[in-house]
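Dear colleagues,

As part of the handover before I leave the project, I'm documenting each prediction I ran so the next person doesn't have to rerun anything. This entry is a single chain, and its sequence is reproduced below.
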Amino acid sequence: MGLPRRDALRILAACMADWWLPRSVYAQKLRAPKKPERRVIVVTFGGGVRYEDTLAPEGWINIPHLTSEIAPQGLVYPNGRHEGLTGHFNSTAALVTGSRQNVDAYGSEAPVTPTIFELFRKEHALPPEEAWLIATNKSFGLMGGSKLRALGDPYSANVVLPKQMLISTIKAAVSTEAGPGVENRQALAERMMLALDEGYEGFGWRVFESGRLLGAEVKASLAKSLLAYFNDPAAPTSGDELTFFMTKEIMNRFAPSLLVVNFWDIDIAHYGAYSLYLEAIRRTDRLVHELWQHAQSLPQYRDRTTLIVVPEMGRDSDIAGNGFANHRSGDESCRRVWLVAVGAGVPRGTGTERPIRTMDVAPTVAQMLGFKMADCEGRPLAELAF
């Protein structure tokens, strides 16, 4: 009970990674087909951010890494737009399908059109370890595949919800360790479950999971990652930092060709504290930069990876009522987004005022990774070299 929050989270995160993620040896056995040389990482600057608080000149102070270190190396689209419902599941589903979605906002329904994960894996005959979705938002359990009969779970991505894995790991540890002190361990479990509960909805509603779960083989030995991560000075102190840790573990073990990473701490804006909202923006900016640095440190990713950073949607304007606290009005501030791309195939130090849509991300990824995505509303971003 006396463990500092950072140390306790470090231990639990490391345990969680080794318990849930497949061993690299096991993954190698499944990789008979030749994987593409190209890698694509899509990061959602999630939770909903206003343009004026980020990419507008007055917002640069909140995203110093993007504006001073990433954007100068890549391509910036300042005039992006999200079309469709302004809820987290539907807006992010539009990013990974290239089409507007209108399904349950709390994640009980999968997208109704094909996702980049399914089409990529099916066309290249690739195992699940080649496509991953790591999401702080726990409503994204069904985001990895559509509800289409010809696709769906057999071709969907591995979906990892780190907060929910943390809860499962804690509960499993407590339930299997009866005897003296079990009450203290249960109390610690409750505290740890609350420690990362920084989202607006809390843990009160159901988490929907796809039919294709990580198998028993993925529950490998805990020791190696536990020891390695315990000595790492970085430890998750927020939901997004936990997501960042899990993303690095997946990259280190499998070097997947397609990764979609959902950061979401920014949604704390619903609590109405502008300072917490800005703090979450700055944290997301830092984590995006650290993720790009990590990709450049790995031979499997260096010089062959394209990073795409894009908000899933904006937030309401001050004239909308509650201002930054919500994203429900559908006004222009709620729909105005931006996109920054960097890495392989991306012109350096450029930008274009041409309007784009978040639905253009999916067909752009399709061209980069060499699979077909004909039936979608979006169009590939012509400025990016393929």
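The beta strands are 39-45, 75-81, 131-135, 158-160, 258-263, 305-310, 336-343, 350-351, 356-357. The mean pLDDT is 83.

All the best with the project,
I.
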